[in-house]
Every structure is written in structure tokens, then in C-alpha cells.
Amino acid sequence: MRRSEKGRQTLSDQPVDHRIQELRDRKAQAYVGGGEEKIARQHARGRMTARERLQLLLDKGTFREVDVFVTHNSNDFGLAEQKYPGDGVVTGYGSINGRLVFVYSQDFTVFGGSVSRAHAEKICKIMDMAMKNGAPVIGLNDSGGARIQEGVLSLAGYAEIFYRNVISSGVIPQISIIMGPCAGGAVYSPAITDFVVMVKETSHMFVTGPDVIKAVTHEDVTFEELGGASVHASKSGVAHFAAENEEDAIFLVQHLVDYLPSNNMQDPPLAPSTDDPLREAPELDTLIPDNPNRPYDMKEVIRHVVDDGQFLEVHEHWAQNIIVGFSRLGGRPVGIIAQQPTVLAGVLDVEASQKGARFVRFCDAFNVPLIVFEDVPGFMPGITQEHGGIIRQGAKLLYAFCEATVPKLTVIVRKAYGGAYCVMNPRHIGADLVLAWPSAEIAVMGPEGAVNVIFRREIGEANDAVARKSELVQDYRDRFA
Predict the structure, then answer these.
(1) What is the radius of gyration, based on Cα positions, of the chain?
(2) Euclidean distance between CA atoms 82 and 145, whole angstroms
(3) Could you tell me the pTM of the whole model?
(4) Nearest one of 198, 192, 191 to 230, comparing CA atoms
């Protein structure tokens, strides 16, 4: 047996079993993160640990961890005595429903999930691996932001993450699940990704927190009021989904991944369908009211058309006058864009245009065919809309449809008026097929508005103005709409 100069065994002389046990001990230390006490506090808040979340997200037994023993190398502010294996983020890869994905899960029990240089490098490495392998990357975010003790080095780490978010955009799907606080620089990476899932009551996103806002603007606001899931799902549009709890958020992401290809060179995954493509749906004959001014639920139309009535709506609570989401036809994923007549009559406004344009561009990037169910009376008039940029945002939706190269089909369900008709994927901007239901009306403007412009004097001079206007409206509708 070889010995060192001082008579001690070298590493190579140690029994193999000893080294295996040492490795197991080190892994066991890494698996408890910041310690059992902090894990208990995490559970007391109704939140899972970083590893528990990954265990639920990925197929059983498929997770392979990367860089489990990495620690920070900072010595300032007492950090030299505070080193934890993994440095506050668990990274690796596994599968969801048999498909490869790369993941990182921030560990709030270690420095509050704050991002150090080493922490950021681990995330960047996983993102690079996802790009090289052409697979989605899913981030489970639970971070207080940059690790202040490391100064600008932590900011540099954030910037490198942002850069990878951008170069990965449109190449591989990127999904962010917000599991806890997400403040400062921590919010920008999720905002760049394709989908953001938040958890009600336990997750928050904001650039500056309530204390800073109180000091600067003297406004009192709670965490939930400032950046809770409900706020970002309904007001800001930052969150695409608001889940009831962490388990619901994870199951939602698993469902979402089933509609997406692994990268922009692949088609979305097919799924077996028991829905007969030749089936009839007589309910559709009576779902659309005869009166063009009466609302109806467009989601019911969608459910009667798609496979098994399954529709995964995106941005369900934001800009509700337009509907976007994923379904299947013949087992093939499709992107759905539709007006919602029950909300603002389905009119296009600033937020609806933003919502629609982003979804169209995502589907185009990842080879998801588009189906439009159109019932649009026009663009929302008003000073607020004009000053808010309706021209610019409406043009973005038009641009998105024009540049999209995936198969595009439009079904004109009822109204298709004015410039909004031109925006919502007509044949003239590249639709592969346009279908019109018996209730369809395609016109420069609504019959009543057109009659008011064209026949204003005649109506004013008529003995029975109401009857004459009704007659002219019906004649215009029959001839032009």
C-alpha cells in the first residue's frame, strides 16, 4: 500500500467503499439545502422546497442533477463561513411525459434564493445545455433578487441569464414558474420567457417592493396588491396563468408542454384523438344569435370545434375581449385566436392587440398552426386608446399575422368590420383558407354606422325616421355585409 511522506494514506489508497460513502454524505448535505429548520419554515408557508418541486414536475426517476457541489467563492461580509452545496439553486435535466427538458429550481432556504455569480453560472450552464440539445428550459423561481454581499458580480450573473433568455427566444420554449417572491432583477428573466405561471397568495413579482414605494411615493400597498398573481394575471399581463397552489402550477406546466415542440425545428407533438373529425355539432347552428348586437360565449364555439372540447386558455384574465390558447384538431396542436363578444363586444383595443400579437408570433416560431374565430366590430375608439398607442399596437397584430408562415385558417363567425377585418388574418394578408358562417358580415363598418353616414339627410327628412333607418340598415346588410 502506497503512503504519503507523512505515512498517511493518499486518496487513491482509500477503499472504494469509503469514497462512495463520502460522496453519499456530501450529496445528503446538499439535499437539505439551508437546513431542516429552514425547510420547516418553507413548509409552514405552504411552499415546497426546490427539490420537492422538481420531483413533482419531472417523470419519476428521470432527474439528473448538474453541479450539485458548486458553492460561491466570496469572502466578504462573512460569506466565507456560509457555504452551501449548490449555492441556492438546483439544476439539471429530466423528462416530462417522456420528453427531455432542462430545469433549474431556486432554493429559498439558501440565502433566500438570492443570485450570486456561481448561482447564475449554474443557470447559464443549464440554459446552454438546453440550447445545444434543442429542449425546453423550465425555471422554478423563488428568489429575493441579487445577492447584495457580492455586489456587481451578482448583477453580471443576472445579465448573462437575460442574454441567454434572448438568444433562446423562438429557438426553444422557455417557461417560468414563480413560486415565491421575485423582486428586482429576478423579474426580468421570467418576463422575457414565453410563459409565466404564478401561484395565488404565495408568489409575487415587482421591480421595487412596498417599502421602497412607501419611501419614494408615500403609497401604502401590500405585496399581493402590488405584484400578486391576480394582479399580474388580470392587470399587467405579466402572468399567463394564475394557479391556485404550487401543485396546480406544476400540473399546468406539464399540460402546457404537451402542446409545444422541443425546439423550432420540430413540429408540435401529436396525440391520439378519439374525436371523430367528421362528427356534426348541431349546437353551433343555434349558438350564434340572429341579432348581431347580442353577445354569446365564443369559448363555447371553440369547445364544439376542437378535439374533445379541450382548450388550454392563455392569459385568460387579461384583455378578455380576445381569446388565445391551445387546442388540438385531429390530434395536432393548434393555436386559437378569437374575439369574445361578451367582453366589450370583442372589440380590439391596446391590450387585446398586444396579447394577440405575442401569441401569434410564438405559434409562428414553434410551428403551431393558427385558427382564427373572428367576430370583431372594429377597434376601440377613444382618447385613452389613441394616446395609449392603439395604432402602434394594432399594427403589431397585423404585422404578426402577415409575417407568420405556419398554416393559417380564419373562420368569420359574425362581424368582420373595417380595419379590424384587415388585421384578423383575412385572405389578403396570407390566410390559407377563410371560411364564413351563415351569420358572417364582412363590411367597411357596421350597417347602422354606414347608414348613418350615407343616408343621414334622407333619414332626417323621412316622416318615420326610425322605420326608414331600419329599412335602409336591412338593405345595406343584405347588399354589402
Answers:
(1) 28
(2) 18
(3) 0.90
(4) 198
- pLDDT at site 74: 65
Q: Beta strand pairing status for 312-314 and 322-329?
A: antiparallel
- Which of helix, strand or coil describes residue 433? strand
pLDDT tens per residue across span 96-117: 999 999 999 999 888 677 788 8
CB atoms within 10 A of CB 329: 17
Give the single-character DSSP code of 8: P
Residue 238: CB partners within 8 Å, gap ≥ 6?
190, 191, 196, 205, 232
Amino acid at residue number 420: A
Residue 241: which H helix or E strand, with range? Answer: strand 241-243
Q: What angle do CA 121, 126, 131 make, to 5 degrees?
A: 125
Q: Catalytic residues, which ones?
A: 184-185, 419-420
Cα angle 149, 152, 155; round to 5: 100
Question: Residues 419, 377: contact at Cβ < 8 Å?
Answer: no
Break the chain down into helix, strand, coil percent, rounded to 5: 45, 20, 35
- The C-alpha atoms of residue 336 and residue 341 are separated, in whole angstroms, by 16
For residue 369, what are the contacts with CB-CB under 8 A and spacing of at least 6? 332, 334, 335, 363, 406, 407, 408, 409
Q: In the predicted model, is pLDDT for residue 259 greater than 70?
A: yes
Q: Give the domains, in start order, of the chain with CATH numbers.
A: 1-31 (no CATH), 39-257 (3.90.226.10), 284-443 (3.90.226.10)
- Dist CA 125 CA 427 (whole Å): 45
Query: 109: which 3 cell numbers?
Result: 432556504
pLDDT of residue 10: 55
Cell 448583477 belongs to residue: 155
Per the CB < 8 A criterion, the answer to whether 85 and 107 are in contact is no
Specify the residue for cell string 360565449: 297
Q: Which helix (H) or strand (E) holds 55?
A: helix 50-57
CB 376 within 8 A of CB 339: yes
3-class SS letters over 263-327: CCCCCCCCCCCCCCCCCCCCCHHHHCCCCCCCCCCHHHHHHHHCHHHCCEEECCCCCCCEEEEEE
Q: Looking up cell 354589402, which residue turns up?
A: 480
